[in-house]
């Protein structure tokens, strides 16, 4: 059995009838190289009355040693004025200019809920238990006029979380704003490190998100730029 499909946008779906047995799904990029989508799920539709097929689909994962795994965000400085691959919850996102250094582009979220967040799904095939990744993101908290907001005084400075999902359980690691150096009128940078835990092979998906710490009404909107998540190379 074989089938081909070209996915042109982030929520594409592809369906086909499958026999009983184990089926491998292989994703390739435009150059024909095996790749892994940021987020992919195998979902069974309702079985026809004439079928009792027991079908298992495995999604082929390329090796985590490839160059694409060295930096997982990929488009965190928004060089092409594009939001491709980025998602948001409880608000609205748009590309704005300028970004860090008064140049280029950045991503802005207009927030309307304490749980408003900017999110990007990561390539699960790149994650190996014990690996470490340095994360860094520059940001501003602004009001409706674009003026800086003192998130320290309001008690709701943003943080970055790595959230994987696995059957019946979720877990997260977080890195937070340094409230001692926060500058309401300029760009701030959150830096930290994530360590991939031993149960990574059980994860269904993983995403990295940026949102505020408290459950208060948001005191401002968020602008992010220069977002990276880089694999740490241990010295030999």
Describe the structure.
The structure is a single chain. With 236 residues, the protein is mostly beta strands. Helices cover 2% and strands 37% of the residues. It has one helix and 15 strands. It has one helix at residues 151-154; strands at 21-25, 27-28, 34-35, 55-59, 87-89, 91-96, 106-111, 117-121, 132-142, 158-166, 169-170, 173-176, 188-195, 205-212, 221-231. The strands form four sheets. Strands 5, 8, 10, 11, 12 and 14 form a six-stranded antiparallel β-sheet that branches. The longest helix has 4 residues, at 151-154. The protein is globular. The termini are far apart. The mean pLDDT is 83.
End-to-end Cα distance, whole Å, is 46 Å
How many whole angstroms does the radius of gyration measure?
A: 20 Å
The number of helical segments is 1
Element order: H for helix, E for strand: EEEEEEEEEHEEEEEE
Which ranges are low-confidence, i.e. pLDDT below 50, for 5 or more consecutive residues?
Answer: none
Q: Helices and strands: which structural class?
A: mainly beta
Biggest sheet record: 6 strands, antiparallel
Shape: globular
SS elements, strand count: 15
Beta-strand residue percentage: 35-45%
Oligomerization status of the protein chains: single chain
Mean pLDDT: 83
Level of helix content?
under 10%
